[in-house]
Amino acid sequence: MELSITQPDDWHLHLRDGDLLKAVVPHSANHFGRAIVMPNLKPPVTTTAAAVAYRESILKALPTESNFTPLMTLYLTDNTDPDEIKLARKSGVVFAVKLYPAGATTNSQDGVSDLLGNSLPVLEEMVEQNMPLLVHGEVTNSDVDIFDREKVFIDTILRPLLQKLPRLKVVMEHITTQDAVRFVETCRGGSVAATVTPQHLLLNRNALFQGGLQPHNYCLPVLKREIHRQAIVSAVTSGNKRFFLGTDSAPHERQRKEATCGCAGIYNAPVALAAYAKVFAEAGALEYLEAFTSFNGPDFYGLPRNESKIKLIKQPWKVPEYYALKDGGQLVPMFAGRNLDWLPSTLHERSI
Amino acid sequence: MELSITQPDDWHLHLRDGDLLKAVVPHSANHFGRAIVMPNLKPPVTTTAAAVAYRESILKALPTESNFTPLMTLYLTDNTDPDEIKLARKSGVVFAVKLYPAGATTNSQDGVSDLLGNSLPVLEEMVEQNMPLLVHGEVTNSDVDIFDREKVFIDTILRPLLQKLPRLKVVMEHITTQDAVRFVETCRGGSVAATVTPQHLLLNRNALFQGGLQPHNYCLPVLKREIHRQAIVSAVTSGNKRFFLGTDSAPHERQRKEATCGCAGIYNAPVALAAYAKVFAEAGALEYLEAFTSFNGPDFYGLPRNESKIKLIKQPWKVPEYYALKDGGQLVPMFAGRNLDWLPSTLHERSI
């Protein structure tokens, strides 16, 4: 069996920079036509000028003959000027602004400290420019249980924000809870959507501890209880157009991830399409797969759908244990060493 | 300020064997008069003969002049014979039998698969011999959320067990939830007690993720939500005699713990007394500290209380970042590199 679908896009991707960028970008370019590229570099991408430069370095790192298009984002800080949003829109290169609550995840120390106060003029300009706000939806107060932080963010920050600015386009990124599902499903109007990662569809929090602590299953927002996973699966396999593909693929070198930093992030770019297909197939909802991977995202962003097609072939393939980096480091992908069905034709035709 | 208390005992300790035993036993012998030594070696200590041999190797590994007394345990398996319990009681060396549900934690693959069926004759003999059953109280079904496994164990295994054998002496080891607290508090008769670790009194599950994944805060049963921590603190600082000190100190070499195995276990022997004192001091309940550390345990086991005294001096001291092992490995203790108050006099007088 094989499926032919419109080429997907990845609406949430970390490509890093330098040698790591060169190592990982082919894995995304193998599958996806476009990707929203997250701006949490060191230093973060806070200006259109920096986004243009970052885009150039991504294009340079691409395999020849790749038609992959990076869609750039700005990192919202306490110092972002509303004029930067105008510049960003004019550039044709920047497609969204990313909100990291300060301290929420990898390289988020420059994030926003007072979204509903200090950041309001920038957000108002984003409404004017129809520029989406991409939200890492967790509060960062260490008194709040880590498994509650998404729900508390929705209740204390996101709802008040949308009451103040009901026309603001918001993507709640990498949702992990039934609370987020309900929030997205019940928001009035068409201004709120969500990306969903492979890991939050296929793993619950037991996977963090199965057979010992599993750093390669650690991401933020952290994996949740099974009922939340099921709620997210139901949401995306129902065909609701407000949910679309965003891998949150986030490479960290093995040694750093396991020991030095314990960084959050799962490297799923090489397996993401196979993983999403598995979810829809197991739910008996393959007819909704293409909308999730290839239609809902561009429709929300107001961009054309891709014209090319890819195939997903129902054929077992083994995920590599790791990918070797030039400097001797390793990248461990999601499902390392395991068998998956649904081989994307792009992988079939090129080597990985 | 200094406190003088009867020398404490550790009613739940992992001493390992070989070089690791030699490295860690002084840390326990520095503080504690006696310790219940867990039998989860490879292969497990399943017979009195093996327990006697293990005891000898512990005594040999002790610093000269140490009066530390190891109290041995047997590892309950599907093949344990009731006669082994008679032998154990006669030996004067074995003081309890440890239940590991198969697959629950480090070296538990030989554990019990059918406690309420196949193991019943052994348990009946334990009632006859007044031999306590020490329980790792978690179900091992991977479908059960890891944070629910203690509660489910109580409801599905421990309650039925005590209905069948109401005279069986049970210690619920390293309790982590308000459910376990309530269970112990409300059991009729004096046959059920619980040990409590420093980590479950001082850390909630956010500590597993604070500033990146923290393997050295990973133990089983895993750290729980703050309300559970608070319930356990309330229980032990209330003076209830059914709760007593059991560190569950569980050394794993750093590299193995961080990368190779992700093993569960926190090495807290060097800091345990300071940590317990911190808990009781912060709760304004120092008057109950000595009963928790030094009376409730021996009273439950029917053993005499220690006669010697130790001092706890309110004086800041810094926990080492790690302890070097002979083979070049490292042991990272709980609270590595942090300052604690309450320096035990035994540490003050000897070097650590």
TrEMBL record, chains A, B:
Top-level taxon: Eukaryota
HAMAP family: PyrC_classII
Gene Ontology MF term list: dihydroorotase activity; metal ion binding
Lineage, highest ranks first: Eukaryota, Viridiplantae, Streptophyta, Embryophyta, Tracheophyta
Keywords for this protein: Hydrolase, Metal-binding, Pyrimidine biosynthesis, Zinc
Enzyme Commission no: 3.5.2.3
PANTHER family per record: DIHYDROOROTASE (PTHR43137:SF1)
Catalytic activity field: (S)-dihydroorotate + H2O = N-carbamoyl-L-aspartate + H(+)
Pathway field: Pyrimidine metabolism; UMP biosynthesis via de novo pathway; (S)-dihydroorotate from bicarbonate: step 3/3
SUPFAM superfamilies: Metallo-dependent hydrolases
GO cellular component: chloroplast
Species for this entry: Papaver atlanticum
Family: Belongs to the metallo-dependent hydrolases superfamily. DHOase family. Class II DHOase subfamily.
GO BP, sorted A to Z: 'de novo' pyrimidine nucleobase biosynthetic process; pyrimidine nucleotide biosynthetic process
Name of the protein described by the UniProt record: Dihydroorotase, mitochondrial
Record InterPro entries: Amidohydro-rel (IPR006680), DHOdimr (IPR004721), Dihydroorotase_CS (IPR002195), Metal_Hydrolase (IPR032466)
Amidohydrolase-related domain mapped to chain residues: 10-319
